[in-house]
Design brief:
By secondary structure, this protein is of the alpha+beta class. It has 2 domains: about 1-115, no CATH class; about 125-410, Aldolase class I (TIM Barrel). It has helices spanning about 135-145, 150-160, 165-175, 215-225, 250-260, 275-285, 300-305, 315-325, 345-355, 370-375, 390-400, and strands at about 1-5, 10-25, 25-30, 35-40, 45, 50-55, 65, 70-75, 80-85, 85, 90, 105-110, 110-120, 175-180, 235, 265-270, 290-295, 330-335, 360-365, 405. The strands form 2 sheets. Strands 1, 2, 3, 4, 5, 6, 7, 8, 9, 10, 11, 12 and 13 form a 13-stranded antiparallel sheet that branches. α2 crosses α3 (about 165-175) and α6 (about 275-285) runs parallel beside α8. The chain is globular.
């Protein structure tokens, strides 16, 4: 399998004299054949700035930098695919941080690109190719004209057309999972937050956070427009906002008003679940689904990344347990990173966390971060590194009643034959 690299203009090549390598956190490692799948539809190859590609010299068997002014290449995977390895590289400028994306090892073999990844959910619904831009532009015009005073529709129109956010696009296309952002503030200071970064962080946020407090009517207009089919999902908590539960005073009456008018579809919240009292109120108002973001079930790791303000991981666990006991379908948005998530102590802690909270789904989501920056803030490994492939297999064995996936699903997903839709 040949190493893939790029020149300074972004042209991508495979190197006939170098074998590809990957990375598990800080460790350069061999890529196994059973870790590779063909480059998925909807994936993007990108050049990693400030890096040099590392591979195995096919003639000598030595690990070497590719000579010349070249950069490492990674793949950005669509939802439904879990990264197993990072690209093999070293930084050429250690003071520079990579843009906030989830870079995956890519190789050239059998006249095609392959990536170190695993299919973990049906990729169809989140493949950008299924978002018709012409139809989207038409629907944006229709709904913003219908609700000219609704600031949320105006905000989401930029998310859909400017940032190409698929959840925002679904809101206008009135299908699948749609977005209804509500919060401009947050009770966490996530390292590498995609919507808000302090100037000294060294990161550039790829999108801006909403800067206004919506009215209940603006929220309910979007919810009613979207909840038109039995399988529709409308979600509080998007990448363009802060923590939605901080606006429980808006969410609770909005849910109650909607459920007085329609029982159609499902209401979801994507949350850090730290504000347990607020979560209880939202659950009791009529919430159907709850996805909780986490990066670890270990306090020191969790705190280093989320920097929680006035809550702890124990609050998160209490919120999940309450929602589960009230019949809400609960899941975690598990931010995974090769060489960290697959540490022995992380796996053991997460298995126990899942058992205690009774959640139904682990959504494996590739962490978008500069690797060196992330590794610099979290605890060092305390146990054996098992690898992402083995980690997934352990979860499957130890948590047979919990689904491994990549995004939120309606209740029928948990009773249907999921294997029939898991195709490349």
């Amino acid at each position: 399998m040949n190493l893939v690299y790029s020149d300074s203009q972004g042209n991508v090549f495979d190197h006939p004299d170098f074998l590809a390598l990957g990375r598990n956190a800080e460790m350069i490692t061999e890529i196994m054949e059973d870790e590779l799948i063909p480059l998925p539809e909807g994936a993007t190859l990108v050049s990693l700035p400030f890096t040099r590609p590392v591979g195995i010299d096919a003639e000598t068997g030595d690990m070497k930098l590719v000579p010349g002014d070249y950069h490492a290449v990674g793949a950005l995977l669509p939802q439904g695919f879990t990264r197993l390895l990072l690209p093999g590289y070293v930084k050429s400028d250690k003071t520079k941080a990579l843009p906030l994306f989830g870079y995956t090892a890519v190789v050239w073999k059998d006249d095609a690109f392959y990536v170190a990844a695993r299919l973990t959910d049906n990729p169809y619904f989140w493949n950008p190719i299924h978002c018709d831009v012409t139809e989207l532009e038409s629907q944006v015009k229709t709904l913003t004209a219908k609700y000219p005073e609704n600031r949320l529709y105006a905000h989401l129109s930029n998310c859909a057309l400017g940032y190409e956010c698929l959840t925002a696009s679904n809101t206008f296309l009135q299908r699948w999972e749609g977005a209804v952002p509500v919060s401009y503030s947050c009770n966490a200071g996530c390292f590498g937050c995609i919507s808000e970064q302090p100037d000294e962080s060294g990161f550039v946020a790829p999108q801006t956070r909403m800067n206004f407090k919506p009215q209940i009517e603006e929220i309910t207009q979007i919810m009613l427009e979207h909840l038109r089919t039995p399988d529709s999902i409308i979600s509080f908590g998007q990448g363009c906002e802060g923590e939605p539960s901080t606006q429980a005073a808006l969410i609770i009456p909005a849910i109650k008003q909607i459920r007085e008018q329609t029982k159609m579809g499902y209401i979801n919240i994507n949350t850090n679940a730290g504000l347990t009292d607020h979560i209880r109120g939202i659950v009791d108002a009529g919430l159907d689904l709850m996805r909780v973001s986490t990066i670890s079930a270990l306090d020191d790791h969790y705190n280093a990344y989320y920097k929680p303000r006035a809550y702890t991981l124990k609050n998160v666990e209490k919120s999940l347990r309450y929602a589960t006991d009230k019949g809400v379908i609960t899941s975690i948005n598990y931010l995974v990173f090769p060489g960290v998530t697959d540490r022995e102590e992380e796996i053991e802690a997460m298995i126990e966390f899942v058992r205690r909270t009774g959640l139904k789904l682990i959504q494996l989501r590739n962490l978008n971060i500069d690797p060196e920056s992330y590794l610099g803030i979290i605890p060092k490994a305390r146990g054996e590194l098992l690898g992402m492939k083995q980690m997934i297999e352990i979860f499957e064995q130890e948590l047979p009643d919990v689904v491994l996936g990549s995004y939120s699903h309606t209740p029928k997903f948990y009773t249907s034959d999921r294997n029939t839709t898991m195709v490349l």
